[in-house]
Amino acid sequence: MKEQKEDSLFSVLDDAQEIIQKSIGMNIRLPKPGKRSLEISTITNGIVGASLVAYGLLSSRKWTIILGAAGIASSMVMNQEAKRVRK
Q: Does the pLDDT of residue 37 top 50, yes or no?
């Protein structure tokens, strides 16, 4: 793999995409989301994650707490990526 210029999710995905392209010989381009779509994803993941945690705390289905925590963690990662992306 080539040296990464920045530690971002998109640079890691670009490196993986390059390796896959070399191995299968096909040119595939993944769309890069803009800042607005990352912000919407942050809000959506946060709301769904908090809802799942609340549901898990109030019900007997405790596994939803884990899903909710994953949603909140995803929201935090998307928030950091949104800060790095230029318009």
A: yes
The angle at the Cα of 22, spanning 16 to 28, to the nearest 5 degrees, equals: 65
* Amino acid letter, residue 47: I
Instruction: Pull the structure tokens for residue 4.
Output: 């990464």
- Alpha helices in the chain, H assignment, sequence order: 9-24, 35-58, 63-84
Look at the block and give the residue holding tokens 């935090």: 76
pTM assigned to the model: 0.69
Instruction: Tell me how far CA of residue 6 lies from CA of 33, 45, 47, 59, in angstroms.
Output: 17, 24, 29, 42
| Dihedral, 47, 31, 33, 44 alpha carbons, nearest 10 | -10
